[in-house]
């Protein structure tokens, strides 16, 4: 497919894929506030594993949305910040904030945990009965 054959839908799919991922928008939201170190991000994002945070940060960096700076110190210090390209998403984040302030209370709250809770064997018991 030639570049001129792309439709706006294709372009939006590409844009959405850069931000899709369970944690990317939350990471971007935090980095929009200020520069963060890896440990700060991990503490700020409840439920994210070190492995997943590393993977999401690498993808965002590969897409040019964040930059990673390593300081030659002992112990090494690594900081993450949004790039100028990502700062272009500022109006989108502001629009999402305005939307949430207006409609957020009408959105049903979902449970934070995912999957089956430990010790919940009622569905297993029902199947075995």
TrEMBL record:
Limits of the HTH hxlR-type domain: 10-108
Record key words, sorted: DNA-binding, Transcription, Transcription regulation
Pfam family for this entry, one: HxlR
Region (Disordered): 109-129
Superkingdom in the source lineage: Bacteria
Tagged with keyword DNA-binding: yes
Coiled coil regions in record: none
Cited PANTHER family: TRANSCRIPTIONAL REGULATOR, TRANSCRIPTIONAL REGULATOR, MARR FAMILY
Protein name (database record): HTH hxlR-type domain-containing protein
Organism of provenance: Asaia siamensis
